[in-house]
Each structure stands twice: as structure tokens, then as C-alpha cells.
Amino acid sequence: HYSFFPGTPRWPSRRRDLTYAFDPRNQLSDDVKRVFGSAFNRWSEWTPLTFTETSNYLTSDLKIGFYAGDHGDGEEFDGVLGTLAHAFAPPRGLLHLDIDETWIVDDAIGSGSTTAMDLESVAVHEIGHLLGLGHSSVEDAIMFPTISSGVRKVELDRDDVEGIQVLY
Ligand code: TQI
Ligand code: ZN
Ligand code: ZN
């Protein structure tokens, strides 16, 4: 079953059209940006929320970046595997990924590396946190707190949909 953060934080009803931006210091490729666009669409399909990319990182609602180790928010990254990413509940809007992971950006699942993680799978999970979902006890849910390397799990489960529709 789905869960929420303590106090059930969510984006207020006057903020249904959210913007997102990538940290310009990362100089991300269009392929990486497309992965996030697809991940956001999976949530907007089931909610009144819309997500629009903007180039203004400072003023965007949601801020996405890749960082190594201690990057200033008190939640350190730890190199390969361990913590892969984290996201803060509304209204903070920060989605951070560990730059030291081997991120799979195309569909090359099973391409050899035993430590590579599918970027869209992790992005869909972290966006759930950005919107206010905690973890789920349903194994097939995107918000279930385990994922294996090389595995692509990007489809929302009905449990994820039910949870997000309680919030929005
Ligand atoms: N990062 C954890 C996560 O996003 C951070 C975390 C731990 C957390 N406890 C939390 C976030 C409680 C919110 C509430 O869950 S992670 C997965 C999953 C991680 C884990 O790097 O361990 C995914 C990132 F669910 F598969 F385990 C992405 Cl998909
Ligand atoms: Zn961080
Ligand atoms: Zn999580």
C-alpha cells in the first residue's frame, strides 16, 4: 500500500502546472533530458499536474541535478551503488542523482555492466517523492523501496496511481 510523508505535504491546487529545470553545471545531453520528460509524463497521465521544462534553473519549481559525495544539502552520495538518488518532498522540489552511478539512458538493459542502473526507473520513483509519495509495500509499485541493477521498472502500478490520486 502507498504512503505519504509526515504531514502529507503536496503541491497546492494553485500550483498544478509545475516547471522543472536541469542544473546547468551538469550540461546534460538531450537523451538524458528526454528520459526525465518521459518519466514526468508517466505521472501527469494520472493527475491534473503538468510538467514543463524551463531553462531558468533558479526559478523553476523542480530542480534536477547530478552530484558526487557531499553536495551541500546534508544528504551525501556514496559512490557506486548504495544511495542512487534522493528527492525532497513538496515544496522543496529537489531531485538529486549520484553522478558516480553508471546510468543506463537508452534501452540497453543487460548490456554487461552489473552495476548499471536504469535512469528512467529511478527518475519515476524520485518524481513520486517530489510529488509527496512515500514508499509502498506493494512489490510491483514504482514506490516500492527496492530496485535491482539493470532492471527497467517504469510503469506505474495501480497502487502508485491510487496514491497519487489521493494527493491530486
Ligand atoms: N534513495 C532513497 C529513495 O529514494 C532515499 C530514501 C531513503 C528515501 N529512505 C527514504 C526517500 C524515505 C524518501 C523516503 O528511496 S535510493 C530506489 C528503490 C533509491 C532507491 O538511492 O536508495 C529507487 C533511489 F526504490 F528502488 F529502492 C531510487 Cl527506485
Ligand atoms: Zn542532494
Ligand atoms: Zn524512495
Q: Using the coordinates shown, work out and report the CATH topology.
A: Collagenase (Catalytic Domain)
Q: Please give the order of strands in the largest beta sheet.
A: 2-1-3-5-4
* Topology, number of strands: 7
Weakly predicted, low-confidence segments: none
Radius of gyration: 15 Å
What small molecules accompany the polymer chains?
ligand TQI, zinc ion
Largest sheet: 5 strands, mixed
Helix fraction bin: 10-25%
Write structural notes for this entry.
The chain has 168 residues and is an alpha/beta fold. The protein has a single domain, classed as Collagenase (Catalytic Domain) (3-Layer(aba) Sandwich). Helices cover 23% and strands 17% of the residues. The chain has helices at residues 30-44, 119-131, 158-167; strands spanning 17-22, 50-53, 62-67, 85-87, 94-98, 103-104, 117-118. It has a five-stranded mixed β-sheet, with helices on one face. Helix 1 (30-44) links the parallel strand 1 (17-22) and strand 2. One zinc ion binds at residues 125, 129, 135, 145.
Give a brief outline of the structure.
The protein is of the alpha/beta class. The protein has a single domain (17-167), classed as 3-Layer(aba) Sandwich (Collagenase (Catalytic Domain)), CATH 3.40.390.10. The chain is built from three helices and seven strands, in the order βαββββββαα.
